[in-house]
Structures are given as C-alpha cells and as structure tokens.
Amino acid sequence: MCDSGSVVMQRLDYQGSDGVSLVAQLVLPAGDGPFPGVLVAHEWWGNTDYPRSRARQLAAQGYAALTVDLYGQGRATASPDEARVWMLDALAQPQRLRMRFEAGLALLRHQPQISAQQIAAIGYCFGGRVVLDMARQGLDLVGVVSFHGLLGTDTPAVPDAVTAAILVAHGDADELVTESDVARFEVEMQQAGVQYSLKRYPGAPHAYSNPASPNYRKAADQRAWADLTEFLQRLFD
C-alpha cells in the first residue's frame, strides 16, 4: 500500500469464478469512509496505467475506485493486434466476461471503507461497452458511464431490467460508432424505459479521453470529466 498525496493506493490480487488470477488497484480517499465506490473498466489495451490514473482522479474527488481486470492476470499490451485479439476473445465469452466484472464488483463491495449500496461503474472504449452491457443485464449498480464506448450489444435492454442510470460520453467524430449506432442505442434505451443521458462532443474521435492516444482531444476530455463529475454527484447526493 502506498500514499500518494491525498489518496491511498493498494494492489489487490483476487480470483474470478473461472479460477483465473486477477489484478486490481484500489484507490481510496484520505479518511475513514464509508465512501461511494466506482469500478473502472479498462480499454482494449488491458490493465495499463490509464485506468489507474482515472481511479486516482476519482479518489481525489472522494470516491473509492477499483480498476477491474477483464482479461485476467493483469495483462496489458501496447500492440493493437494483440489488444484486438484479447478484446474479441473477451466479447466472444460473455458469461466469463460478466463473471470477471462481478468478481471486481464483489471485491469493491466488500472493502470495509465502501458504502456497499453506492457503487457505480465507468469504462473506456471496450470497457465502455462492458459497463453498458452490465447495466443492460441488471447488475446491482446505481449508475454507469461509457466514454467513447461501443454502443452495440448482444444483450439489449428490456423494460424493468435496468436499475442503473446511464451516461454515454460520445465523441461525434468517433469512427467506430456510427450515427445509426447512436440512434439504435437511443431507441433501445427509450423502449426499455431506461434513465439515460447522451452527451456529444463535436469533433471528438474515438479514444478522445486518453492523453496517450493520437486521438486525444483535451477540450472533449475535460467536458466529459465534468459531465461525469456532475453525474456522480447526482447519483450519490
């Protein structure tokens, strides 16, 4: 465990129900809590420092944040080809993916500093698709936020199934999400009676929020983080 200014960071090794070793980082605000919790789901690159940096930002705002390991063994890569293989493998096994997400959720919920009934989830790119799907499947989350996440799904929302409020932070120039994808998502949410909000950032491409990406757009990133901050404040007020 280490103290980095006003937050405390701790690596947690845990195990999914499929027996695979998983690696998370728990980041806590200063103080005793209990704190609302936020799961952070990684991009297709895996368990890089990027989701950990977002967890540190969340902790600085007073939330207990945990990075969930969706690939297993804390894997991360800088290779787009390897990332694509890992992501497609994860999406091809939705039950395993859900079990790994639920393992992270249970880990966060059982931390003594956590307000167990106040847990949300955020995700980036692949992780954005994952948190939306977890909400669609009715997991016990008060809210989810998808940043430049894929909006398609094999498990569309149905009436009375989704309990989480949803925020989608979408770049209008995202080359992986078409206007038809956005329209279908909105129809899906409306027909299922889901409480959702879609924020659009003009000119922002895919991966606009990651400073390590050539697609990074500072203005869109700052607006999206402000939208997240407001969303979480409403959730946990």
Describe the protein.
This protein is an alpha/beta fold and 237 residues long. The protein is 36% helix and 26% strand. A 9-stranded mixed beta sheet has the order 1-2-3-5-4-6-7-8-9, with helices on both faces. A hairpin with a 5-residue loop joins strand 2 and strand 3. The radius of gyration is 16 Å and the shape is globular. It starts with a strand and ends with a helix. The mean pLDDT is 95. Keywords: Hydrolase. One of its GO terms (molecular function) is hydrolase activity. This is Dienelactone hydrolase family protein.
Protein topology:
Layout: E1 2-4, E2 7-15, E3 21-29, E4 35-41, H1 49-60, E5 64-68, H2 80-92, H3 94-109, E6 114-124, H4 126-136, E7 143-147, E8 165-171, H5 179-192, E9 196-201, H6 218-236
Pfam family, one: DLH
InterPro entries: AB_hydrolase_fold, Dienelactn_hydro, FrsA_esterase
Keywords: Hydrolase
